[in-house]
Amino acid sequence: MYQQMIFVNLAVGDVDASKKFFTELGYTINPQFTTDDCACVVISDTIVAMLLSRQRYADFTKKEIADPTRTSEVLLCLSAESREKVDELVDRAIAAGGSATGEPQDHGFMYGRAFDDLDGHTWEIMWMDPAAVQG
What we know:
This protein is α+β, with helices and mostly antiparallel strands. Helices cover 24% and strands 33% of the residues.
């Protein structure tokens, strides 16, 4: 059965620094689609982040490229398998040079935290109790 994928394209200031940051979070780089001006970060079988130099990103749009340290162009939210995994990933992101953003959100059945990566893109990490979504 076909599984639709998502390829999130983000402009970054330093491709090599971004590759190091995301590998420190436990993700892998697919060398087949990685060059000097872009990195293919495999988040899961169906989620890929393409980290493009600002110059390479400009090849795909005529619009002004957002400065994610000053404006919000997107909020990226990834699920985690447990509350502990939420904390583990966000803590690794902070240790790797990212910064915590906002306060942890604890609603009992749902828990989340967020961080900004090296370029200021906001990543939310969220766990939801599977019993809460069953019908």
